[in-house]
Q: What sequence folds into this?
């Protein structure tokens, strides 16, 4: 075979290979463009979720995205919520925060907690526990936010713990003994917004109960209430806030949307109400 023939065959082979490569590059570019176009959809899906929780029949191995695949714990729901994201948590039945599971943690998230059936409100029961290194302090297995956050409880009952058996004078209840609490992780001011909509707060031992609803001592808390009920004995002792009272100014570190937000007047509408 002549050298010319061999060179001709090589050139043809190279041209064929170039054609194959060009076709593959075109396919790769098309696949890449399609993948890039899907990114916003994926980000939106991760950024805002609706999660179903069933403590009786659910499993934390589920994705929680459908009624047929509910999660078992609120703690797992917190871990599935991305920092800065939003989630709607639909409870299919009553839920109890078990001290062995600890907290449901969110990072700068927008959270709504509600009954899956709004006509039959479920109850979330909180529990108190102590850590070995803090023998005189009671904490609460509950909701915790890092850096900032918003949470709304909608058409649901919230039951605080009973007074522990070894409760006595001098026992200390930190901001961690709260239904919702914050950890600033070094941030000077921790903004936390809490909204209660058609919520009933159940407080056993209400006259002496030392637990709080919100623990955010290093930041500013915005509290909004609509058609809520709670025991007057508990409300009158300023137990909505740890180390704070209701205020309609920013000076007191607590912002309230109305100076009548928790009222004993049954004629007051669109605000909190005690019974």
A:
């Amino acid at each position: 075979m002549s050298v010319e023939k061999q060179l001709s065959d090589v050139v043809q082979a190279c041209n064929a290979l170039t054609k194959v490569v060009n076709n593959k590059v075109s396919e790769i570019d098309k696949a890449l463009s399609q993948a890039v176009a899907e990114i916003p959809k994926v980000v939106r899906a991760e950024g805002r979720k609706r999660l179903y929780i069933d403590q009786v029949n659910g499993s934390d191995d589920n994705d929680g995205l459908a009624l047929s695949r509910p999660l078992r714990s609120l703690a797992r729901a917190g871990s599935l919520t991305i920092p800065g994201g939003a989630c709607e948590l639909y409870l299919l039945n009553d839920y109890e925060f078990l001290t062995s599971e600890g907290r449901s943690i969110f990072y700068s998230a927008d959270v709504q907690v509600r009954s899956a059936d709004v006509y039959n409100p479920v109850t979330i029961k909180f529990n108190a526990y102590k850590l070995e290194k803090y023998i005189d302090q009671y904490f609460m297995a509950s909701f915790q936010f890092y850096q900032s956050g918003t949470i709304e409880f909608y058409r649901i009952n919230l039951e605080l713990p009973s007074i522990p058996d070894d409760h006595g004078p001098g026992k200390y209840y930190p901001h961690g003994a709260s239904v919702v609490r914050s950890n600033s992780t070094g941030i000077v001011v921790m903004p936390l917004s809490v909204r209660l909509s058609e919520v009933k707060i159940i407080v056993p031992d209400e006259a002496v109960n030392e637990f709080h609803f919100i623990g955010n001592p290093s930041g500013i808390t915005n509290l909004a209430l609509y058609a809520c009920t709670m025991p007057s004995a508990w409300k009158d002792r300023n137990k909505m806030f740890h180390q704070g009272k209701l205020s309609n100014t920013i000076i007191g570190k607590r912002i309230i949307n109305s100076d009548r937000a928790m009222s004993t007047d049954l004629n007051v509408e669109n605000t909190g109400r005690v019974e």
About this structure: Confidence is low (pLDDT under 50) at residues 38-42, 249-253, 268-275. The radius of gyration is 27 Å. The longest strand covers residues 143-159. The chain has three helices and 16 strands.
